[in-house]
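Appendix B. One record, verbatim.
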Amino acid sequence: MYLFWTIAAAVTFTAGGAFMKASDGMTRFGLTFAMYASFAAGATFQALALRQAELGVAYMFSLGLEAVLIFAFGQVFFAERASLPKVVGVATIIVGMFLMHRGEAPSRERAEDAPNSGPVQTACLTGEPGA
């Protein structure tokens, strides 16, 4: 489920970035409001994703997807020019997202069942003295 929330965060953060550009330096009230609303929604979705995923993986995936999407938005909606170095940069971000996702540790449920999760480790997490 964290992947859903991470993608939702990236999409809404991307929309916020597009509204930021379109707000003309926050001089257009409706677009400025949409910018803030999009960023608030994105932060909410990111927080929901982080309940189930590693910080580094979920946050980097969201930022990477946001970078890829905003690059596409710039091309489509703001007539920004793509150059070979920009395209290579976006491709590098995609490869980084893939590598981070592949290196993700097991989920919390599986980590709790791991053989190393004895009383000492549990005591460190709860603040109670270990056995």
